[in-house]
Amino acid sequence: MKTRLAIITLSLLLVGTNIFWLYTTIDTVVTRSYIDQEIYELNGSNAQAVGMLKTSLAGKTKEEIRSMAVKFTDLEPFEKEGCLWVGWYGFKFSESGLFIDIETGTSYSEKPVCDANL
């Protein structure tokens, strides 16, 4: 009788843990798909915003962009690799001090904008 009870108990525990692991796996897959979609949407909106920034910042000076950009971050601006970095964006300027391009630091397939050798 005790052996039979032990077999039933262990069988129920095995089924219960298998159901738990199945639920955990499904939950992880669903969560990952939501995370992937959110990353896709954030990358798309970032690309759109950067494109609009490039257009709207054309002809602006370094000081104009610095004074505008610092309003939207609590990070201190600094210059590195030929760019003015304010928050997460690097702004590239011509020799005359006019805006040329923007670096987001997230594009791995393109040549970096902020490089002292460019």
Tag the structure with descriptive keywords.
118 residues; alpha+beta
Please count the helical segments. Answer: 2
Q: Helicity range of the residues?
A: 40-55%
* Topology order in helix (H) and strand (E) letters: HHEEEE
Question: pLDDT average, as an integer?
Answer: 89
Given helix and strand content, the structural type is alpha+beta
β-strand percent reads 5-15%
Rounded to an integer in angstroms, the radius of gyration calculated over CA atoms is 27 Å
Question: What is the makeup of the main sheet?
Answer: 4 strands, antiparallel
- Strands ordered across the widest β-sheet: 1-2-3-4
Measured between the Cα atoms of the first and last residue, the distance is 82 Å
Low-confidence stretches: none
How many runs of DSSP E, i.e. beta strands? 4
Shape: rod-shaped
Number of domains: 2
Write up what this structure looks like.
- The protein is α+β, with helices and mostly antiparallel strands and 118 residues long.
- The chain has 2 domains: 1-57; 59-118, no CATH class.
- It is built from 2 helices and 4 strands.
- The chain has a 4-stranded antiparallel β-sheet, with helices on one face.
- The protein is rod-shaped, with a radius of gyration of 27 Å.
- The mean pLDDT is 89.
Give the helices and strands, then pairings.
Layout: H1 2-57, H2 62-69, E1 78-80, E2 83-86, E3 89-93, E4 99-103
Antiparallel strand pairs: 1-2, 2-3, 3-4
Describe what is shown at a glance:
The chain is α+β, with helices and mostly antiparallel strands.
